[in-house]
Every structure is written in structure tokens, then in C-alpha cells.
Amino acid sequence: MRRILLLFLILALQFFILFYEAKYDSATTDENVHLPAGYSYLRFHDFRFNPEHPPLQKMLVAIPLMFQKINLPSDFDALWSEAGDFKTDTWKPARQFGEELLYLSGNNADQMMLSGRLMTILLTLSLTVAVYAISKSFWGTRGGLLSATLVAFEPLILAHGKLTNTDISVTLFFLLAVWWMGNFFKKPSVKSAIIFGALMGLLELSKYTAVIFYPIAFIGLMLWLYAKKPIWKKELKKLYPLILLALTIHWVVITLAYFPQVTFFYAPDYIKGLKLVLGHAASGHSSFLMGQFSQSGWWYYFPLALVMKTSLITLVLLLGLMIVKIKRAFHFDFSLTLFAVSALVFLLFSMTSKANLGARHLLAIYPLVFVLLGFWGYYISNLKMQISKLHFKIKNFIILLIVLFVLESLSVFPFHITYFNSLVGTARGYQYLLDSNYDWGQELKRIKNFQDQELKGETIYLDYWWDGDRAPDYYGIKYERLTPQMKDVEGVMVIGATSYMNTDYSWIRELSIARRIGNGVFVIDTR
What we know:
Layout (H helix, E strand, L loop, with lengths): L1 H23 L6 H14 L11 H7 L13 H8 L7 H13 L5 H45 L1 H6 L6 H20 L3 H15 L8 H15 L4 H26 L10 H16 L3 E3 L2 E3 L6 H9 L2 H16 L6 H17 L15 H8 L1 H8 L5 H24 L32 H10 L6 E4 L6 H5 L4 E3 L10 E5 H4 L14 E3 L3 E5 L2
Parallel strand pairs: 3-4, 3-5
Antiparallel strand pairs: 1-2, 5-7, 6-7
């Protein structure tokens, strides 16, 4: 009972952090598209807006909007017609629809966004419970609690665990699909195949990067057959029809999600979105890494982002586990091996993408790692060493690391989006990574508070356009647009970190920063 109460305490603290940041952070740039698009799916049963992201989480976060009075934009018919062009990427009308729905149509944008974010928070809490349950099945209750603590307070999960984007749903269902894949191979049955297929379908409906799961599943099958070397042919013969059943079920789930927009038992919008994302990953996107901007990215972007954006304590625990595995020949069972292999393959595939847009694209591997790290809870409880004093010291050291991990995460509250570990430091993080790693549009409300409370409503020069032109007006910010050509401004300049690091703004970096709003917005006073 005491340990269950501890789990509830962990969940309560996680909920408080997520809810507070969800309430006081303004919408990040992708949320302005995803939440309105999800609303259009539910209201009109049509998926023309924002096809480059599957609909599952977008529809989930939009459910509360169906119980609110929502006004459509005055030019909705024109935007709807433009987005109906199936042969083109219709991101422009989708973004315009989203921004107008939130900020120009007489709706309560904060209420809409918070209600949608609450649905994501429920997914994040479900992720924590799932990690606890899966880790407990391998390592016992203490292992489960240790894993739950890691997932509940990992800064990257807290950063994105309250946003109406697609990162948390793919993280949850990737964990469940990998976990059940191990169960399916070990105990194949019709029921197990149906569950596996359903989880795969939900995974693919979460985010298009989930296509990585297909090669992961193939590798998992090869590992299982290798482990069954003497009877691998017999094992494959038993698995073959069940694999076909699982694949059929997964396609049924994907297709039904797009009903009634289906043709000959497939969803054209799903295929269109998949093509758009694969093309995007191949062609690249403007990205930033350690002072340099690039359209084609860097193959080492994601490993570096992982090292800089993950708590050092998590990395230390992972390194320690690897040492135990190598030096003491600690044996993982097949399912745990799948967790490790799946995380590694996901990282390797991510490194091939030219769209280097943030560590959040690696979020799906974190729960797998946290389940593996549940070993340390088992270690504290059960592992006996020849030198008891050494055992005692290691046990206390691990407990100390977990305490420091929680305190470090709390120290960056309520700015988890901007978190960098001590190798870089949160304050200097913008010099290394930008976009969703640091400066993503979350500070508009705080900019307004700064203007009202410290400038007494004085007009500012503003360069902060993650939410389009309409959001600053919606919040009543008095501003003139700041551009790189305005080198002789006398007044208060407020600029986001992404613009601040742009080469065209090299002159502004020579000026002293008067203060920072949150972490990712700089105030420069030349009065």
C-alpha cells in the first residue's frame, strides 16, 4: 500500500507541473495547427487540414472543444476549399485556419488550448503508469517506482507532455507496441496477434515517424528466430499466419480511423501524409546546431541533442547499467533485449533524417530506457555482492542520484522546454540548439505580463512570430515589428532566441541583455 501511495504521489507531482506549465505557457507553433485540425476532423469528418500528421492525438485533444461554443473563421469556406486540393501540400490554409480559429474568431484561445492540453496530460500520466507496470513486471515494485520516477520527472517529457502535438501519443504506443511484441513472439496466439495489430495501428496513427517500427519488428523477429535456432523453421511456421493477422488488424485500425474518407479499404489522406513526411525528412528543414544553421542537417544532430537535453543522471544510470551488463555478464531476457535494440534502431534511423527539429523526435526511446533502468530498483532490493560495504555505498549512491534527478528537474520549473543538462547549462542552451529545444512560442503571455508590469504598457519592438501575427494582437501586446535592418532603434527590443541567433541579427548580439523573459526571450533596452 505504501508503494502504491508513492506512485500516486509521483503522478500528482507530475500532474501539477504539467498543468501549471500548460496553463501559463502560450501555444507553441505546431499546437496552433494540430488542435484546430483535430477539431475540424471531429466536426466535419474530413482530414484535409494538416495531413502531414496522423489524426489520433489531434482528435483526442480536440474532444473537449466539441463541448464548447466554437466560432469558425469568417473565411472558413475559402480555406476549406483551398485545403481540399489533394495533390498539393496544404499547410498554408491549415495554419491560417488554426490561427484564425484561435485568435480572430471571437473564441477563448486560452480555454481551447488548456482543455486540449489536459488531454495530452492524461496521455502522459498514462505513459508513467505504463512504464511503472512494465518495469514492475521485470524488476519488481521498486524497479517500477524507480522507472516511474524517471519518466515522471525527465525534463524532456515534462517539456512536451502537456502540448497538443503528436509526440506523447507516439511515445506511449511505441512503448506498448515494443513491449507487446516481446509477449507476442514468446506466447503467440490469435488474441496476442490481435492486440499486437491494434497497438501497431494506434502507433502508426500517432506520428509518421512510427514507420520506424516496421524494421524494428523485423529485427525483433530475426532475433527471436535466432534464439530458437534448433527449431526456428517450426517457430516461423507457427508465427507466420499470426503475423499476417496482426498486420491485417493494424491496417484495419488505420483505415477505420479515417472513416468515412476511405477508398478501396485504404485511407488516401494517410498515404498522402506519409509521402509528405518522408519527402520532408529527405529534403530537410532549416535547423540550428551550435551556432550554425543548415537546411540539410547533420547526421550527428540527434546523438548530440540526446546528450545535451537528457538529464546527466539518466545518462550516468544508463552508463552504469551498460558496465554491469559488460563486466558482470548480466543477462537480459528477450523482451528487455527488444527494448534496448528498439531504442538503438530508432536513434539510428532518426540520424538519417535531414529535418533536425529537436530532441523531442527521440522522445519515444525514453520510456524504453527508463524500463531498462528499473534494474537499479531491483539491484537495491535484491542483488547481493561479496563486499557488503560496497553494496551499501552503491545503494546509497543510486538513491542520491534519484533525489538529485528530481531536484534538478524541479529547479527548471516552469520552463522545462528550455532545459539543458549541466554539460551545457539551461541559460546557454540557445547557443547549441533552438526550435522546440528552447524557443517555440511559449512566452507570449509572459511578454504581455512583462510589458504591463515592468514597462507600464510602453510599446516594445518585437520579433517573436512563432504564433503568427495574430497572437500578439490577441493578447493585447503593444508593439512595432522588429527586423534585422532596424539597427538604430531607441527603445525596448524583445526578441526570441531563434531570431537572436540568426546571422542577420549579429548586431543585436553586441548589445547587452537587460533581462530574460522565461529563458528563451531576450530584452534589450537602448533607451
